[in-house]
Amino acid sequence: MVSTVERWAQASAVDVRRAARAGELTASTAGMAGGFVQVNLVILPARDAADFLRFCQGNPKPCPLLAVSEPGERGLPRLGADLDIATDVPRYRVFRHGQAVADPTDIVELWQDDLVTFALGCSFTFDHVLSQADIALRHVEQGCNVSMYDTSLPLARSGPFGGNMVVSMRPLNAADAIRAIQISTRFPLVHGAPVHLGDPDRIGIRDIAAPEYGEPVAIRDGELPVFWACGVTPQRALVDAGLPLAMTHSPGHMLVTDLREHEIAVC
Amino acid sequence: MVSTVERWAQASAVDVRRAARAGELTASTAGMAGGFVQVNLVILPARDAADFLRFCQGNPKPCPLLAVSEPGERGLPRLGADLDIATDVPRYRVFRHGQAVADPTDIVELWQDDLVTFALGCSFTFDHVLSQADIALRHVEQGCNVSMYDTSLPLARSGPFGGNMVVSMRPLNAADAIRAIQISTRFPLVHGAPVHLGDPDRIGIRDIAAPEYGEPVAIRDGELPVFWACGVTPQRALVDAGLPLAMTHSPGHMLVTDLREHEIAVC
Q: Known SUPFAM superfamilies for this protein (chains A, B) (predicted)?
């Protein structure tokens, strides 16, 4: 008998989006629709969208842009033909003045004609690509969230959006670190190559054993910490900007697109 | 006025080969014919050539094969139209029973109808590619030879050819290490991606401050030692095999080919 987890792993992107749209799926999309690209969503009124677009463009490693909608448009045709931004994510998060105020399962009632949607690369896809190459990921082994850290790496500022980069860390032995650099280089739309490896002090990490986000993982003898730009970076920038209204996916509850992972590889 | 060094740097591969052929050039080819691929040569009687070919095939990182001649053939048409293996290298080295016995400027008198020539990727080209990408190389800054080490990394044995890999080491900060991995991955024919980075113990290096070949270089605060498979590997294997006759280029005195560096990039 096929378990629910396996059934969702083998589902298509369209299956996942339709289940979310029907209200049947409100769970995290981790491990669902294997091989399909999942994305972070940021939805902003047009008045803030130009600044955020420039912010992403200036910081492509933490904020890799896969698609931007026209104002008011509820589709993202490059990411899927049958796709409704306001219903197809299992759970959303609504921010007012930088505060999370609700986690609804759709945003139909909140929709406005001036909303612009940004789809950004997501680490679920990144981790899946590494796992497919037999690179063991400690946070997957430990069954916990990846370790993420504030750094001293400054972002290119744009309007109200700025601050420092947040990075995720995966401990790897040297051979896997080299291989992971090669593989992630092929995927600039899910954060691309690492921004650092080795000594955490060099990028202003306070305490490698105490990540600011996610959970700590063991770094074993012979392993190097390898640091990638992280999708928490735009989330932090968004919260810090304190906009009157902003909406995103709820953490872990992604938009699943019709793009296959190999389609976003640059070589 | 253009210096001799600059003149040779701007020379074509054909210019360098013709000067070597005429006996006018007997110096190291380091820095000559910028952008043209230089290669190591190994020349063996046919009876040993099949084993050596399998050895290279089984150990592509230290022994990347660009071309192999037919027995007795003095040309390597894939590497240059007007090319004579027996005259176009500034200086050769002749080995008998594993001992270097002569460093002649041509091997016309020693030529035999059964000799097979192997052209292997060379670190001059590798270092040039990294330098073109603005990656500062410590051994170039220090004006010395690169540091090279015996390791415990075993080679695939073939007939009399075996032993452990020799690696070269370049100290780089994390950002340059990541970039150097990306760039060298594009060039498998000049040793490709590193085989290790970080802790030298992990690959059996005895003392990072005392390289077995070349000269020691400073590893500065915030830098990682990055290790690449090295062309000294086949030279060691050749000497250790103790063949009755083997010929190579003299160290630093390479065959300059008509191939441009970008032609051997895989992406």
A: PSTPO5379-like
* B18-64 pLDDT, tens digit each: 999 999 999 999 999 999 999 999 999 999 999 999 999 999 999 99
Residue contacts between A and B (CB atoms, under 8 Å): 49
Q: Are A167 and A148 within 8 A, CB to CB?
A: yes
Say which of A181, A185, A222 has its CB closest to residue B199.
Answer: A222
Contact B174 A267 (CB under 8 A): no
Q: pLDDT tens digit string along A130-166?
A: 999 999 999 999 999 999 999 999 999 999 999 999 9
Contact B71, B113 (CB under 8 A): yes
**Cβ neighbours of B185 in A, within 8 Å:** 182, 185
Chain A interface, mutation test: which of B167, B169, B173, B178, most A Cβ atoms within 10 Å? B178
Neighbours of B84 (CB within 10 A): 17
| Residue A111, number of CB atoms within 10 A of its CB | 15
Cα gap A241→B161, rounded to integer Å = 64
Minimal Cα–Cα distance from B207 to chain A, Å? 17
Say how far apart CA B180 and CA B170 lie, in whole Å.
Answer: 10
ipTM of the complex: 0.86
Q: What are the structural domains of chain A?
A: 4-122+242-260 (3.40.1640.10), 124-234 (3.30.2040.10)
